[in-house]
Design a protein that fits this description.
23% strand; alpha+beta; single chain
Length: 155
C-alpha cells in the first residue's frame, strides 16, 4: 500500500471534523514513497484518529495549523502529524496509548482511539509515538515498515 493514497483518503474522511475545528492542514508527502506493510482501511483509521485528535487540540486557538509530512527514514517510512496546540502534558505522555484513557470531557470520547491506533501499528510491525515539538504542539509519528517479499499484511 502506498502511504499518500491512505493519507488522501483519510483527509477526505476527516474533512468535516477538520473544517469544524477550523484546522488548516499542510501536506508534505513525496510522491515516490515506497509501499509499506499494512491494510489501507486500518491505516486510514489510524490517520483519521490522529488527525481528529489534532483538530481537537487546535480548535478555538489562533494557530490551527496541522502539518502532515512523510519521509523515508532509513528503511522505514515515517508519517508525522504535528498540531500547533498545547502539546501533551508530561504527566499523561506515558498513558496516552492506554485503553480508556482520555483527557476529553465526559461524553466526548471513550479513550480508545489512540489505544486502537497503537495496536494497529504494532500489527503492521510499525510503531506509533508521541512527543512535543520544541516550538509547541504535539507530534504523532507513525513508523511504517516497507513491504517485504512474502510478508502478509495484518488486515
Amino acid at each position: 500500500m502506498v502511504p499518500w493514497c491512505v493519507v488522501r483518503d483519510a483527509l477526505a474522511i476527516a474533512e468535516a471534523r477538520l473544517a469544524a475545528a477550523g484546522a488548516e492542514v499542510t501536506l508534505d508527502l513525496p510522491a515516490n514513497l515506497p509501499r509499506v506493510q499494512g491494510g489501507p482501511v486500518r491505516l486510514q483509521q489510524v490517520v483519521v484518529n490522529v488527525l481528529s485528535n489534532a483538530a481537537d487540540a487546535v480548535e478555538g486557538l489562533s494557530d490551527r495549523r496541522i502539518d502532515l509530512t512523510a519521509c523515508v527514514d532509513g528503511d522505514d517510512v515515517t508519517l508525522t502529524v504535528r498540531d500547533h496546540g498545547p502539546g501533551v502534558a508530561p504527566a499523561i505522555a506515558d498513558r496516552i496509548f492506554d485503553p480508556f484513557f482520555t483527557t476529553k470531557q465526559v461524553g466526548s470520547g471513550l479513550g480508545l482511539g489512540l489505544s486502537i491506533s497503537y495496536n494497529i501499528m504494532k500489527d503492521f510491525e510499525g510503531d506509533l509515538r508521541v512527543a512535543n515539538h520544541p516550538d509547541g504542539g504535539a507530534v504523532f509519528t507513525l513508523v511504517l515498515r516497507p513491504v517485504r517479499a512474502g510478508a502478509l499484511a495484518a488486515e
